[in-house]
Amino acid sequence: MDWIIIVFILMLVIAPVMWLKPSPRQKRQQVLRSQIAKQGVSIKLEKPPLHYFRGTMPAYRWHFCQEGPGPDFLLVRDSNASEALEPYYAGWRWRIAPLRPLPDNAAIPLKALLERLPQDALVVQSTPYALTLWWWESQTAERFATYLPEFQQLRESLRGRADQPFSQPLKGTEQASSTVSDQDAGLS
């Protein structure tokens, strides 16, 4: 009888430790995130741009440089999109279409990527700051690494195609404003 009580007490002590141990899926996700982050992709858990979605989802981002911002668009997989949205390609719909049509050197890699993405990839988004993939991380790091060249090619072809140009200060404005202030000073 004493052995049964000792085993029961040991199980009570070990059980919380076992709960803290990462599951095989969590281990795979940790390896995936660390290996992909080494390739220059930033990964965060955020609320995706989906209606009626609660919680967070992994967002994989390829950032544009400041000198070459990207266009605004948002593609949603048919399984998470309304029928009212305009179909684009291979089971994806525009939630936000780009203001200007994408050139062939951007549209071709985008279409190729949309065909290859796993079924748990739900959103592809471009903003002036980054190209983002929202997905549930169903694949291994080795498999996802096969997408990296296509994402990098797409980012490079979208770079500098911002819908609204970022304003740069005009040359000579400082001189014009100092002349105006000098004239105002002379009037007083």
TrEMBL record:
Residues 162-188 are annotated as: Disordered. This is Preprotein translocase subunit YajC.
